[in-house]
């Protein structure tokens, strides 16, 4: 997936020869061109019947392409909150097969330990973040699953119930904003998920969105 369309072109990934445009409509005219192209490419990937491994590999390559340019993310979707990290909805597939969010970290902010329950691609547009994966023992308590992993601008990683789904994430910086672009295999703001304590506590969690895109 090295052949992305230039950002200033109309989305050209919908080849009528192998994609039936009447099957569903993409609600993308309002999107900035790089994001619109990404959505078009992701739609083609999902229409092809890609399994999770292909979504992680090929969808991850599409996301890395999207992260190569900055400047397309609106100021509204890049705004940190003084107290908490923010998740802004950038795009929701009309069939809720995937959603795209910007994840905005204020300096020093972190998430609780949480899961996703669906596949997720996590890419960094600005700054850096650190993720600590956790593994759940039979008694419910959590133990670290490997060392903390630092994700730099331009790089992409994945989470899912099969790859490892429980983690806690931090802005790598105490003095600046970091921004991730995440793609999830559902309307992630509406998914029933959990937050955890290391000692075995587990509470229902539904993230919602900080905006109503
Ligand atoms: Fe996460």
Automatic annotation (TrEMBL):
Belongs to the cysteine dioxygenase family. One of its GO terms (molecular function) is ferrous iron binding. Residues 1-11 have a biased composition (Polar residues). Residues 12-23 have a biased composition (Basic and acidic residues). This is 3-mercaptopropionate dioxygenase. Keywords: Dioxygenase, Iron, Metal-binding, Oxidoreductase. Signal peptide: none annotated. Residues 1-30 are annotated as: Disordered. Fe cation binds at residues 114, 116, 167. InterPro entries: CDO_1, RmlC-like_jellyroll, RmlC_Cupin_sf. It comes from Pseudoduganella albidiflava. It comes from the Bacteria.
């Amino acid at each position: 997936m090295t052949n992305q369309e230039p950002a200033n072109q109309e989305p050209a990934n919908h080849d009528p020869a192998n994609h039936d445009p009447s099957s569903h409509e993409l609600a993308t005219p309002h999107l900035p061109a790089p994001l619109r192209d990404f959505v078009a490419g992701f739609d083609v990937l999902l229409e092809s019947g890609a399994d999770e491994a292909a979504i992680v590999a090929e969808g991850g390559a599409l996301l890395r392409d999207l992260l190569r340019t900055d400047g397309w993310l609106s100021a509204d979707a890049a705004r940190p909150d003084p107290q908490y990290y923010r998740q802004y909805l950038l795009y929701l597939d009309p069939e809720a097969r995937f959603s795209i969010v910007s994840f905005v970290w204020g300096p020093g902010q972190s998430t609780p330990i949480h899961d996703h329950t669906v596949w997720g691609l996590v890419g960094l547009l600005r700054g850096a973040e650190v993720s600590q994966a956790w593994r759940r023992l039979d008694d419910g308590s959590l133990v670290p699953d490997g060392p903390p992993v630092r994700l730099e601008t331009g790089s992409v990683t994945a989470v899912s119930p099969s790859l490892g789904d429980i983690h806690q994430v931090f802005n790598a910086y105490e003095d600046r904003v970091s921004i991730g672009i995440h793609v999830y295999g559902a309307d992630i703001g509406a998914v029933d998920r959990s937050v955890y304590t290391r000692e075995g506590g587990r509470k229902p969690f539904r993230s919602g969105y900080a905006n109503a895109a």
